[in-house]
From TrEMBL:
<feature type="domain" description="MHYT">
    <location>
        <begin position="6"/>
        <end position="193"/>
    </location>
</feature>
<dbReference type="Pfam" id="PF04397">
    <property type="entry name" value="LytTR"/>
</dbReference>
<feature type="transmembrane region" description="Helical">
    <location>
        <begin position="109"/>
        <end position="129"/>
    </location>
</feature>
<keyword id="KW-0472">Membrane</keyword>
<dbReference type="InterPro" id="IPR007492">
    <property type="entry name" value="LytTR_DNA-bd_dom"/>
</dbReference>
<feature type="transmembrane region" description="Helical">
    <location>
        <begin position="209"/>
        <end position="227"/>
    </location>
</feature>
<keyword id="KW-0812">Transmembrane</keyword>
<dbReference type="GO" id="GO:0016020">
    <property type="term" value="C:membrane"/>
</dbReference>
<feature type="transmembrane region" description="Helical">
    <location>
        <begin position="135"/>
        <end position="156"/>
    </location>
</feature>
<feature type="transmembrane region" description="Helical">
    <location>
        <begin position="72"/>
        <end position="97"/>
    </location>
</feature>
<dbReference type="Pfam" id="PF03707">
    <property type="entry name" value="MHYT"/>
</dbReference>
<dbReference type="InterPro" id="IPR005330">
    <property type="entry name" value="MHYT_dom"/>
</dbReference>
<dbReference type="GO" id="GO:0003677">
    <property type="term" value="F:DNA binding"/>
</dbReference>
<feature type="transmembrane region" description="Helical">
    <location>
        <begin position="12"/>
        <end position="32"/>
    </location>
</feature>
<protein>
    <submittedName>
        <fullName>NO-binding membrane sensor protein with MHYT domain</fullName>
    </submittedName>
</protein>
<keyword id="KW-1133">Transmembrane helix</keyword>
<feature type="transmembrane region" description="Helical">
    <location>
        <begin position="168"/>
        <end position="189"/>
    </location>
</feature>
């Protein structure tokens, strides 16, 4: 077996990159319940790239820290495959947490998927090495897999148990360290034998070029970390900030509209809602307090709120007739106008619904 050593400065850098990537990915997923479905998809994709890219970068920085007796190279195909595996499994874990109810078994499944992404990326990336041949021991697979799944589940439970800043920071420490722990646990049970000289099986990347790729990736992760950190601190109240105002108690009677913010479900009196817009399988409600995300579909909202004065004016819109400030009849359809709403000033009215709306408005 080959004898190798480590550059401990690069090991420290690999752990730091893992922590920055973990924070960036988890911070990007905070507050997704209050945004539209399209924005949610984009931020989940960005978070998956941050988490998966962080796993990959930590691994290869740690590999660059190893000092072998022979020159080593990395085959391009498994090197690229390893980062794609990490990103895809991180994305699947985030999809499980942000599209569907967050039950205990679902959180466990998401954590297991995230952990398997770490260990699958590690062994796929390790298989890319040329110049020496990795020699695996079954104990390494068992220990690395068990640690990856266990720490992945723990990170997800901490991050999504409550969507507070402290949870994000705690999960960052757990996930960031778990990537390094799994890597070095697997390496402890992996030896390296001198490979038989021969031509590479495909395009190969030497250490210098790999270092350049890793450097660029680390730079991108660092920039994303700084941006996420600035947004995270801006969202957190400062030491001299006044405590948040208590929400006004709901009226004793009348329907209420559920809406979600930071993983918490609140209830808004339907009388305060001016309009509701379909957003995929969910809806966005517009009220003086701003735009909020509602878990009801547009059909369910219509069924529940029609007795409270709401009217379906379009396949994608319900309006509260008490909030309509003006109605404009166009050639074949119409427009409802609103005042005092920062995010909405008009709603289209379908031609087939114009007459019924005019009757509801007393016209």
């Amino acid at each position: 077996m080959l004898v190798y050593g480590y550059d401990y400065r690069l090991i420290a850098a690999s752990v730091l990159i893992s922590m920055m990537a973990a924070f960036t990915g988890l911070a990007l997923t905070r507050g997704l319940s209050g945004v539209s479905e399209g924005v949610r998809h984009l931020r989940i994709a960005m978070a998956a790239v941050a988490l998966g890219g962080g796993i990959w970068t930590m691994h290869f920085v740690a590999m660059l820290a190893m000092r072998f007796e022979v020159a080593v190279y990395y085959r391009a195909l498994p090197t690229v495959a390893s980062v794609l595996i990490a990103i895809l499994l991180a994305g699947l874990a985030l999809i499980l947490m942000h599209f569907g109810r967050r039950t205990g078994p679902r959180m466990g499944l998401a954590g297991a998927v995230l952990g398997l992404g770490i260990v699958a990326m590690h062994y796929t990336g390790l298989s890319a090495i040329e110049g020496c041949a990795p020699v695996y021991r079954p104990t390494g697979f068992a220990v690395a897999g068990g640690l990856a799944v266990g720490l992945g589940v723990l990170a997800i439970r901490v991050a999504y148990g409550q969507r507070r800043a402290a949870n994000i920071l705690g999960a960052t420490a757990i996930f960031g360290l778990s990537v390094a722990i799994v890597h070095f646990a697997a390496m402890h049970w992996t030896g390296f034998a001198r490979a038989v000289a021969g031509a590479a099986a495909g395009p190969a990347i030497d250490n210098a070029h790999l270092a350049l790729i890793v450097l660029v990736t680390a730079f991108v992760i660092s920039g994303a970390f700084l941006l996420s950190g600035a947004s995270f601190l801006a969202a957190a109240p400062g030491p001299d900030a006044p405590p948040p105002a208590e929400p006004a108690p709901p009226p004793a009677t009348g329907p209420r509209l559920p809406y979600e913010r930071e993983g918490v479900t609140y209830f808004l009196p339907a009388a305060e809602v001016a309009a509701i817009r379909a957003e995929g399988h969910y809806t966005i409600a517009y009220a003086p307090l701003g735009r909020v995300f509602c878990p009801w579909s547009i059909s369910e909202a219509e069924k529940r709120l029609t007795p409270a004065g709401f009217f379906r004016v379009h396949r994608s819109y319900l309006v509260n007739t008490a909030h309509v400030a003006a109605f404009e009849r166009l050639k074949d359809n119409g427009i409802c106008r609103f005042e005092g709403l920062a995010d909405l000033d008009r709603v289209p009215v379908s031609r087939s619904r114009v007459q019924a709306l005019r009757a509801a408005l007393g016209l």
